[in-house]
Amino acid sequence: MKPETKKDIRSLSLEDLRLFFTQNHDQAFRGNQVYQWLWQKGIHNFEGMTNLSKSTRSLLETHFVINHIDIDQLQKSNDGTIKNAVKLHDNLVVESVLIPTETRTTACVSSQVGCSLDCKFCATAKIKRMRNLNADEIYDQVVAMHQQSILYFDRPLSNIVFMGMGEPLMNYKNLINAIDKITQSDGLGMSPTRITVSTSGIPKMIMKMADDQVRFGLAVSLHSARQELREQLMPFAEKFPLNDLAESIKYWYKKTAKAVTYEYVVWKGINDGDEDINALVDFCKISTCKVNLIEYNPIGDDQFLQANKDRIGAYESALESERIIVTVRRSRGKDIDAACGQLANKAERE
Predict the structure, then answer these.
(1) CATH number of the CATH domain containing 20
(2) How far is CA 167 from the centre of its chain?
(3) Active-site residue among 61, 95, 115, 238?
(4) Which residues are bridge partners to 86 per DSSP?
(5) Last residue of a domain, which of 28, 50, 65?
(6) What is the spatial distance between Cα 306 and Cα 318, in angstroms, rounded to a whole number?
(7) How far is Cα of residue 257 from the mean position of the Cα atoms in its chain?
């Protein structure tokens, strides 16, 4: 069978694998063994499945391929952050970032090649969306960064954030399948409480996550709690107005009892006024929440400038006065274009 006609074995469920072996006159439990190699040990070739006979490995080689990622380029920041240019099986490239602190390492994972949204301040938005990542491609990024965490920082990966390239909720099925593999005991076995999915704010999908009783955390890229300004910053928000977003967040909290985190960049002369601060405080009152005020990372557009410290301080004071948890997030990996909003396959394009 020609390689281009073979099926990617990781598109099969455990039940599919068990059925394949019984149909080929072998025992069903072989499917369990293969599944473990694929999802728990993250192996990328059949030859390495050493508890299978040579004839069984040959059978797999005849019928299937394993379309895995490769780390095409690795860059290290002065602050220890690692950015990966991740080459997919069809030679498209996405980026992922491993962010270390003294106590943990966090993987920032991509979910799409490019992005279909149009946020004015984000470098990824300047790349058209070419396709969704498959579940195994999302999973492979996590495995690669887990290995890097052990190699470079002598500890396993501790946290995962879906804040890389793309809008995760526009690739929902593959996102959920990947998280299942990451969290299941016969996969990587990571706790879902250590995973956060960040969305630009798609109300119906937030409600679907609530209905699905997902166990991971939710972050929303807000950046303005005024509809008119939010549409200027994130034009797609015209289709997903703040009123609808607010209702979906209330629904999320009612169904899951999990606080939402708002990601909020403050720009000089754009959303740093008292009106903006008051609007955010009011929006935060709809349900229990946390706010991350994020340092802006330039992408070559002079329209967006980092806000003065006193205006960020004004946000902090106003939120804290209402007993809303707020944290100022300092950027990591800016010197290698690995910080929030900077992922754009710059190295590949150059």
Answers:
(1) 1.10.150.530
(2) 8
(3) 95
(4) 71, 94
(5) 65
(6) 19
(7) 22
Tokens of 48: 């390495």
- Residues 6 or more apart whose CB falls under 8 angstroms from that of 109 comprise 96, 138, 141, 142, 145, 160, 161, 162, 163, 164
Answer with the one of 20, 48, 65 that is the final residue of a domain.
65
Beta strands 112-113 and 159-162 are unpaired
pTM of the complete model: 0.90
Q: In CATH, what number is assigned to the domain containing residue 183? A: 3.20.20.70
Q: Active site includes 275?
A: no
Residues comprising the chain, all counted: 350
Q: How many domains does the chain have?
A: 2
| Residue in the block written with tokens 């192996």 | 43
In terms of domains, do 179 and 41 share one?
no
pLDDT along the chain (350 residues), means of 10: 79 96 96 96 95 96 96 92 95 95 95 88 79 96 96 96 94 97 92 97 97 97 97 94 98 97 95 98 97 81 86 97 93 58 48
340 an active-site residue? yes
Catalytic residue from among 108, 119, 289, 340: 340
Residues 43 and 128 in one domain: no
**Is there a single domain that holds both residue 26 and residue 74?**
no
Asked if residues 216 and 192 have their Cβ atoms less than 8 Å apart, the reply is: yes
Q: Which domain holds residue 203?
A: 70-349
